[in-house]
Every structure is written in structure tokens, then in C-alpha cells.
Amino acid sequence: MIPVEAYLTVGALLLVIGLFGALTRRNALGILMSIELIINAANINLIAFARHVDPDGMAGQMFALFVMAIAAAAAAVGLAIVICIRRSQRSVNLDRINLLKW
Predict the structure, then answer these.
(1) 30: nearest Cα among 40, 17, 44, 42
(2) Which candidate among 20, 27, 57, 95 keeps its CA 20 to 30 Å from the CA of 84?
(3) Contact indicator for 46, 59 with CB cutoff of 8 Å
(4) Domain that holds residue 39
(5) What's the pTM?
(6) How many domains does the chain have?
(7) Is 60's pLDDT higher than 90?
């Protein structure tokens, strides 16, 4: 059996990679992918703790599946917004987008 520390290490590594990508990218698609990495890191930690507390239960896996479904819906909405901005601004570089400025 793999110890829970190994799962937490993988989750922490994904979190750091996602945070680095979200804070350093200027491309909207790269930021969306980094946010997905952060959500997947949270799911790994959720499942690791659920298996550690209750090895026979499926509550952690079901909750992670629910989080993945919500994340997929949020990614679809985010991608639709990026496509609309790309069509109007001809760029997905977040430095060049000023739609909300007065």
C-alpha cells in the first residue's frame, strides 16, 4: 500500500506547478490549464485523506467526481469566454484585454 504522504507530495507538486503557471502566464488558455492543475491537486488530496480515514468508503471518490464535473463545466464556460474575447479582440493575451475598463 502506498503511504498517504506520497499522495500529498504529488498533490503539493501539482499545486505549486499550477500556482506558478497561473501567476506567470499571460495567455488566458495557459491560466485556465493552470487552474485545472490546482483543482486536480485538491482532488488528489481529497481522495488521499478519504482513503486514509475510511479505506472502505467511497465518499471521497464521489466528492472528487462531483468536483471534476463542476470543474469541467467551469472550464467550458471559461473557454467560451476566451473564444468570445478572441473573436472581438484578436488576442487572448490578458495584458491587451481591457474590456472592463471605463
Answers:
(1) 17
(2) 20
(3) no
(4) 4-89
(5) 0.85
(6) 1
(7) no
